[in-house]
Amino acid sequence: MGGMLIGRVLTFLSFLHNGVKYPCALVEWFFPVGEGPDPVMGTWVVQPKTVAGKRGYGLIHTDCIVRACHLMPVFGDTSLPVDFSYVDSLDAFNAYYINSLVDYHSHETL
To answer: Burial of 60 by CB count in 10 Å (0-12 exposed, 13-18 middle, 19+ buried)?
Structure first.
């Protein structure tokens, strides 16, 4: 993936230290599955980083955010509940395709 990591921004925040303001983002990390793109879809698959069974988070400076990306769930064999809401998508699935069709440049840099 070219050295880039995928992080889901949960919130933006800032703090002061020695009179310097640091704008930051709290992110949930997603790491690549496998050594290359999925052979069928032709795009990278990522899954949430877990530590002791819980999702991994980090605090980063906003200057580290390069671009947005679109994650599409890797659907399993079961149907979604009728009342499933799209807002729960990044919490409900175990893996996601990075949609390279949304951004013309994403296939070059990821």
So the answer is: middle
